[in-house]
Amino acid sequence: MTQRLSVLIDKSAIGLSGLCLVHCLAGTLLLAIVSAGGSAFFGHNIHHIGLMLAVPLAVLGLARGVARHGRWVVVTLGGLGIAAMSLALIVGHGAGEVLFTVVGVTLVGLAHIFNIRWLRH
Known about the structure:
Layout: H1 3-34, H2 45-69, H3 73-91, H4 95-120
Helix pairs in contact: 1-2, 1-4, 2-3, 2-4, 3-4
């Protein structure tokens, strides 16, 4: 696969992290305002689906990057982010879920941003 495909994988993962962040923050805000969140975007199953998409994207994108640039810090950041996102599923709804999700998607997103930068240099 080419470097362009690696960058596309990383950008897809960043986009997924961004969607997760928007979901988490918007869902929390909407729930606080209207006390309703039954739609598909704000349902709890979306977290499982998002994690099932994030893990393979992170593994594929970050592993390919490490193979080219050799900087394992991206795997460390990505792994910590995935771990935090997984913890968010365990703690359930509430402040802990929001905290772990925001930290997790931020770390995964940063890992992919660093991966793209180091692939280009």
